[in-house]
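Supplementary Methods, section 5.1.

A reviewer requested that the exact input to the structure prediction be made available. We therefore reproduce it here, unchanged from the version used in the analyses.
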Amino acid sequence: MGALSVAAPSLAADDAIAVSTALVFDGTSLQNVQALQFGQIVPTGSGGAVTINADTGSVSTIGEVVALGSNQTRARFTLEVPIGFTMIISGDPSVVLTRAGGTETMTASLIHRPTSGLAAVTVFGLPIGLVATAPTQEIHTGGSLVVAGNQADGFYEGTFTLMVAYL
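The structure derived from this sequence is encoded token-by-token as follows.
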């Protein structure tokens, strides 16, 4: 009897390794670091409005009001979102300020402006949100406070909300 020998081709295999990653982000990094302060206001005559520019922080008045001192500030928020995250920022369009110990009110219309670390995202030329271009971003809020000529003296305070939704 003879031996039978069969040659079988050798099979080669290629292996590849893939890396899998994930970033878990809790979305709670929005912080208010400076309040919106209209400062000391003296109404005269029929009153008017004090405006704080959201972009520059500059203060202006219209009508018969005087803004005293230099303690007026726009609100400043910081946000820490990883570069490349897309989001929508929205906030209350106005805030009602109520006199401490009283019921008198004044209303401020608000403007929220994304500033550093954010760029507009557009689709077909239409804005759909903002994308983080730096690890820390800032949003500023300014507004225009209407003050009546006979506004009661006192300290007025109110709160407003700024929201960030991640896409």
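The CA atoms of residues 2 and 8 lie 19 Å apart. These observations are discussed further in the main text.
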